[in-house]
Amino acid sequence: MATERLDIGTSEIEKDKVHIIVEIIEYIPNAVLSRTIVKKTTGNVTVSSFAAGEELAEKIAPFDNFIQIIDGTAEITIEDKKLKLTLGQGIIIPAHAKHCFNAGEQFKMISTVIKSGYEE
Q: Looking at the whole model, is its pTM more than 0.90?
């Protein structure tokens, strides 16, 4: 069963303050949480936590999305290709590629979307 992401902070995090990124968001059982780090019309940076057993439904986005794993191990499917990313690894999900996330175990990630170059 796919889970919707619960956004726990739509405003940017405090500027000019040091943050420990992995601590910006907690794990909540049976939930996928998301918190905005930076949100601009040209793109955004978000941190998310996935409880073990949770997933996000398959979707297609119009922009490239750079994913970085900051805790745990993530299972990502991009265009029917299953990948496992571990702490410190990253991948670019290409614009217009169908993709989904699955948490075989809990994990946290940073998502960076730059909204330019794909005006189609």
A: no
